[in-house]
Design goal:
The chain is 39% helix and 24% strand. By secondary structure, the protein is of the alpha/beta class. A 4-stranded parallel beta sheet has the order 3-2-1-4, with helices on both faces. Helix 1 links the parallel strand 1 and strand 2.
Length: 96
């Protein structure tokens, strides 16, 4: 299984597009996967979007920090919760 960790900070607008594109590619690959979103204390509607994604797709999980701890902390939390044989980190802005 492939685990993809996605640190998020104020990514409300980007998350639906990110989710759509990443799941499209992963489904084409035909591999089992999980998406682990880590909300790093966002002040916009990021958490609400993550809750909706997790409710609609069992391959999506999320963690949410009470405040902004930084990308490295978000990545570490994702690594600690990943179940995959392989783990990748991607930014939600689709720049990777």
């Amino acid at each position: 299984m492939l685990s993809i960790i996605v640190p998020c900070y104020n990514e409300e607008a980007a998350l639906p597009l990110f989710y759509r594109e990443v799941t499209r590619v992963l489904c084409e690959m035909g591999e089992e996967y999980e998406l682990i979103f880590v909300n790093d204390g966002s002040r916009d509607g990021t958490l609400g979007v993550l809750k909706t994604l997790a409710e609609s797709d069992e391959r999506v999980t999320y963690l949410s920090f009470s405040r902004n701890f930084g990308k490295e902390s978000a990545m570490y939390a994702g690594f600690c919760n990943a179940r995959g044989d392989y783990v990748a980190v991607m930014d939600a802005d689709l720049q990777d």
